[in-house]
Structures are given as C-alpha cells and as structure tokens.
Write a structure and sequence with these properties.
Elements (H helix, E strand, L loop, with lengths): L2 H6 L4 H23 L5 H5 L2 E3 L10 E5 L5 E5 L2 E6 L3 E6 L5 E4 L23 H29 L1 H9 L8 H21 L25
Antiparallel strand pairs: 1-2, 2-3, 3-4, 4-5, 5-6
Helix pairs in contact: 2-6, 4-5, 4-6
Amino acid sequence: MHDRVRRALGLPSEVRRQGTPLLNQQCWCWGCDIRRAEGNLLLAYGFTRQRPPAGQQGSSAYSLRLVNGQALVLWGFGLFYGHPALGGLYLARSGFAPRLLDDPTPPAHAWSWEQLAAAYAPRDVQAWWRAHRLLALAADWIAGYERWVVTTYGLAYRAACVAAWRKAALPATAMADAWRDLAQRCAARAALLIANKPTDGVCAPSAGRPQPEEVYV
C-alpha cells in the first residue's frame, strides 16, 4: 500500500478530538429538541418515531428518509446514516468511531447499541473510503439541521439547550460551522482514496461499543 494511502486511512486525530465532544453535545441537543415543551422538533422536521415495545427498555428510534434513497436514524446512543451506493454507517455517541453496515437500509426495531451487532470497524481502503464518505454526508446533514433550528426557532433556544449541558464543548453559535468543517475534513480524506479504487470485499466485524448515556422518548 502506498504511503499516501496509508496516511489517508483512518480518522485524523484532530477529527476524532473535534467529533467526540461535538456528537455528544449534539445528542444532548436532540434530546432537548424532543423534550421541548412547545412540541417535538424532530417530529416537526419530518422524522417518524418508533418507541420500544412495551416492557422493553431502550431508546426510541427517530427515522428520516432523505433524497436519493438515503436515510437517517437517531437514537440517544448514536446515529445511523444509509446511502444506497455506500451502505450504512453507525456512529456511537461516545468515541466518534465509525462502524459500517453493508446494508443501507435503516435497522428495523433497534432500541439499543447491542442490537447493531452487524456493524463492523473499517479495516481496509474500501471500508475507510466508505466510512469517510458517509461521515461527510452525516456531518453535512447535521450542519443543515442546526441551521434550520436556529433559523426557525432562534439562536436563544439552541443556546439555552447548550447552557443546560454540563459538558458543553462549544457555543450554540459554532455548532453548524463545526459540523460543516468536520464534513469537509472527512470528504477530503475520502478524496485522497479516489486514486486507489476501492476493491470489493467484506470487512470482518470487531467487538466492543460504548454504553449509551441517555435514551430518546
């Protein structure tokens, strides 16, 4: 493998350092959007909600169909982003470690991270190329969502959400731009791999996922 490709594999340390607290804060803000006294913002945006069956613990799943067959699912413990040509990405709330699924279809009836056992860590050029592309798409969508929140409901609303988060990593004014910057960084990493055409293959699963910190209702 060429040195340039080897350097391109994996998330840069600065991306992981930026993404870890940012996603944790974002999940908190989505929880605020769900609990909003005046109405659930995820439902207002167009998400559909699936609650765990009676007697089963876990987080509600908020699903959204996007353009060109793409799809998004949000839980209190992380998110899923699916693309027909790239498969699926599972990103846990903690650690900012992308995991892939070969199926781009949103997981059905998943209420906890344990039910996403099919997700595996990228281990080769093809897998990391997919992971970077999917991360870029997911981060870009989140940036757009944050702009929608501020435009529609005001910066004061989002600032109040962040102020209530004891682990706040950055102010509400910076969240959309931070996600956009992250999207650009991931897209740039994917672009470095274009010259080395991904080859077909399936990566082996690897074990271990962080525990969720809250659930969505």
